[in-house]
Amino acid sequence: MSGDKFNISDYNENYLNKPLGSLHEKEIKNFWNESMKYIVFGFMFTLLTFNFLWLQLILPSVGAVLLYTGFSKLRRVNKAFNSAWIFSIINLIFNVLNLIYVSTPLNVNYKNTGIIVFLGTIFQVSFLIVFRKGIRGIFNKENILVKKDPILGLIIWRVLIILLAITELGEIWIISIPII
Fold first, then answer.
1. What is the rounded (10 degree) CA torsion for 166, 167, 168, 173?
2. Using CA atoms, how far apart are residues 44 and 58, in angstroms rounded to an integer?
3. What is the pLDDT of residues 83-104, one digit of tens each?
4. 54 CA to centre of own chain
5. Please, what sign has the CA dihedral across residues 20, 21, 22, 23?
6. Which DSSP letter does residue 170 get?
7. What are phi and psi of 49, to 5 degrees?
8. 132, 149 in Cβ contact below 8 A?
9. Whether 71 contacts 124, CB under 8 Å
């Protein structure tokens, strides 16, 4: 292709003469890239909490939709991704019910929210463990040795943040800033 003009012969030489295998590899790479992008942003939006401008409701809902979209594409890869897809459906239903609960007169402030936080944390950590199992299954199938495990770090970080929030040690800046 020369300049700004489109030349069909350049197109034929550059794209149509490539072997079919490289096109298939690009499609597979794009499939995994797109799915993982949805999953990473979905987990990011569901695990972060901002309590202003209704972001505590909007971000987890968007994250639940992104998680469902990402895992629905990967559900046939292995059993762990199928389980993660089921977790994403449960997460989506939970977020819809939470939006209904918050926006109706059913919204009553509980004095003991520790149980709800504890159950939500157990669900999120279980979801991350299933996702980690699916990723490790893919790496084991391809005989790839993974040196770092960022999902395990995310699980530990999430548990520490919840423990700091429940014990109210998160109010002490010296303790909470290094963890963030």
1. -110
2. 13
3. 999 999 999 999 998 888 888 8
4. 20
5. positive
6. G
7. -130, 120
8. yes
9. no
